[in-house]
Each structure stands twice: as structure tokens, then as C-alpha cells.
């Protein structure tokens, strides 16, 4: 493709691989807005990609779980840890609730905090037990 850099091709290839992975994966910017969602996350949530990307994660998670995720991210930043696991409630486009176990990691920190990547490890019907 004319004008495409080698790095751009690598990123596109990587996104293609992530998109077909059977595990829901997403990225958030530093403000908590979704910057990428793969096909598995779209299928599980009932949302299409264009209705998720650019939206705040609170579209899917209740405020209390957004707060819990933010605490986990602060912990990663303060300790230099690699991942944190958080179990949350997630609301689908059909107003149904799922229990999701998220594995959160920081995006590379070359120029400061840029956001996070999340992988959904477990997804079950219903809200988590308190």
C-alpha cells in the first residue's frame, strides 16, 4: 500500500490478530475512553465497534467498578506491577448484566501514562456477588 510505513503495517497486522482472537480485548486512553475494541468484545457486549470507540468505559461499567479499575491502575503506576485482575459488572447493549474478570495492564510508558489494555478472562451471566 503506497505511503504506508513498515511500523504501520506491523500495527495493522497486530490489530488483525487481536481482532480475530476469541477473547474480548480493549484499550482505554488515560481518561478512560475506549480507543480500541476487538470483535469478541463487540459480540459479547452487543455493541458495534463504532458505538464503543470514543465512549467512556462507564458506558459498560457502573461507577463503583470504574472506581475499582482506576484504583488498580493507580496501583500499577505506583508499584511498577505488570497486571491487576478486577472482577466487575458489565452491562450489555440489551441491558443484561455480565460478570467479567478483567486483566488490566498499562500501555507502554515511554512518554508518561497513555492508558491501559484490558483482557476479559472470564465472562459469566449475571452480576458479581458482593
Count all strands and give the number: 5
Q: Over the alpha carbons, how many angstroms does the gyration radius reach? A: 15 Å
Poorly predicted runs of 5 or more residues = none
Identify the strand order in the major beta sheet.
Answer: 2-1-5-4-3
State the end-to-end CA separation.
52 Å
Mean pLDDT: 89
In which range does the helix fraction lie?
25-40%
Shape: globular
The fraction of residues assigned to DSSP E strands is 25-35%
- Could you give a short account of the major beta sheet? 5 strands, antiparallel
Instruction: Decide which structural class fits the backbone.
Output: alpha+beta
* Count of helical stretches: 4
Note down, in words, how this protein is organized.
- This protein has 130 residues and is α+β, with helices and mostly antiparallel strands.
- The chain has four helices and five strands.
- The chain has a five-stranded antiparallel beta sheet, covered by helices on one side.
- Strand 3 and strand 4 form a beta hairpin.
- It starts with 5 loop residues before the first helix and ends in a 5-residue tail after the last strand.
- The model has no long low-confidence stretch (mean pLDDT 89).
